[in-house]
Amino acid sequence: MRSYRRTTIRSTDRLRLGPGAKAMFNRCVAVALAGGVAAVAGSMYAQDSYRRFMLAYVTAFAFVLSLSLGGLFFVLIQHLTRAGWSVLVRRPAEILAANLGLTAVLFLPIAGAVAIGGGEVYPWAGGGAHAVAAKAAAEAQPVQAHEDGHALEAGAAQAGGHGKEGGHEERLAKKRAYLNPPFFLLRWVGYFALWGGLGYWYWRSSSKQDASGDHRLTVRMETLAGPALLLFGLTITFGAIDLLMSLDPHWYSTIFGVYYFAGSAVAVLAALIVIFAGLQRAGYLAQSITVEHYHDLGKMLFGFVFFWGYIAFSQYMLIWYANIPETTGWFRTRGATTVAADINGWTWVGLMLVIGNFVLPFVGLLSRHVKRYRPTLVFWAGWLLVMHYLDLLWLVMPEFGPQLTLGVVEIGVLAWVAGLYLAGAVYLAGKHDLAPSRDPRLPESLAFENM
Amino acid sequence: MSETHYVSAAHAKPAGPPSWSALIGEFADVDAVMAAAEKVRDAGYEKWDVHSPLPIHGMDRAMGIRPTILPWIVLTTGLAGLAGGLLLVWWTNAVAMPGVPTVFQGYPYFISGKPLFSLPANIPIIFETTVLCAAFGAVFGMLVLNKLPMLYHPLFRSQRFRRATSDGFFVVIAGDDPRFDARQTAEFLRSLGAVGVEHLET
After folding, report:
1. B153 with B139, same domain?
2. Cβ contact (<8 Å) for A317 and B58?
3. Nearest neighbour of B57 by CB, restricted to A1, A154, A366
4. Is A149 in contact with B31 (Cβ distance < 8 A)?
5. Domain check: are B162 and B62 in the same one?
6. Is the domain of B157 the same as that of B138?
7. Does residue B78 share a domain with residue B50?
8. Per residue in A300-339, is it b (16+ CB within 10 Å) or e — as a string?
9. Residues B50-87: pLDDT tens digits?
10. Which residues form the domain of B43?
11. Most buried among A306, A316, B104, B137, by the most CB within 10 A?
């Protein structure tokens, strides 16, 4: 308690990555290289290798993008609420947000696939609405009539039966005003200009303060947080629609942007917990960050786990209840059904998400003792990061085919993209302190107690 | 600076032995009251409390207060709400009990081909009853555990104690504590650095 008088981080606490940064950077690059080789080699033996490789790439990209956007959200929300407790844990989130510059580079293969690759990854980017409709018709499986008349099955039957021929092509033609390669690329330039600009500016301002201790920087960061959060909410919605939802251009869900955001928030909080456990184990910030900070990160993680479940269920229930053929088809592709004929490899991933990304971590993180005991909290954080990847895989890969595809290609691409991404983050982390060492609210964070 | 006041609220004091008594020790600041609380805890007192105009983090530990059982109450009422919600949707939608009077029967209603008892449609109801009952458990459990609402407490008779809502920090040891002894306990509080000690009897 008496520590509330302490206003600076103890001099015995290691605050700089120092020479360790180089080794960590090299390790990340090595993982990326190994992953890249494995992915390329793996896709040589895979069927329809270009599509599979690119869809795996979209999954991995959506994963690292969600870490960065989650980081940006975390930074913005702390400034918006003028939070004191989180000062010590803010820097890694700022680094993840600043890493959006590198994420923009990682987007280039997707931009290339849309610009010159035709409609193989994003069907709407292909030759024309006609080609898309033809592909959809080819994919539509024969549907048997079931006596039990289950809702999803009934919807899918209509979609497969008479919905596709005229209606879809027509609707897709109308969507072309939005879903066309030039406008798609223009939007992503805009997203990255905004995200990257904000991420870089917050990281830069905060680390400038390490040297100057200038309080006006905090005021400026707080002033911008409100408008920035508004723009963030809009752009992450459109970004999620463009990146993930438009993989199936027929389908639409108005809650989809929130779904991606919920996953991003879970991912960044889990990542922060894992990052701090790793840093402290390596001897960084050993005394400054206490069980109280972990407890609060754990509380936010718990909240967003439930938020994800709430949003995921809301999306499912409305589509299940309305039973409109246009929208039920998406869940049918993902095997989210009890109709035996429609159960596919993705059914099990979907079930695993319900249990592993919602029920188990909800019960697991419910107790205060779990959140205040580092090994259990780190376990759930790591678990949720894996589940978050599976969630994205479940959003993307069923477009490739009904079999569960999680092999050398997917894991290799993930290692490649995430390795490069982490290398960039480590590079940024090595440049400044690992915590905002002269933030005016630092004493509050150092003295922070939950009880 | 130390002084002991013996309150003589004669107009209010009933005849006979006091029904309630306590020693009120006033301390200068947060640090002093924290240090005092640790000592009172270590001395083995049971019926005592700390009063402060602001929340003092770490006071629970300094006072040796055991963790609250409120989370278990919330969990129990939440689970009861979950079970009750499930029962509600099942009874009102999915069954027709033979032999039960019509007024207590449910109202099975076939909607857009969904099964009568279909979980996706029912989860919002179950969710709401769970949250409602858990919230009731939290609010009313908190009130009961804190013995609230309590509109009057003998401590309010002390003029000095009124500063507990503005700038006073107090350790109050109740007279029914097994270790309580008016003279020794007052001496003890003074030895902890109390700037004033008051013996309140009502």
Report:
1. no
2. no
3. A1
4. no
5. yes
6. no
7. no
8. bbbebbbbbbebbbebbeebbeebebbbbbbbbbbbbbeb
9. 999 999 988 999 999 988 999 999 999 999 999 999 99
10. 5-66+147-201
11. B137
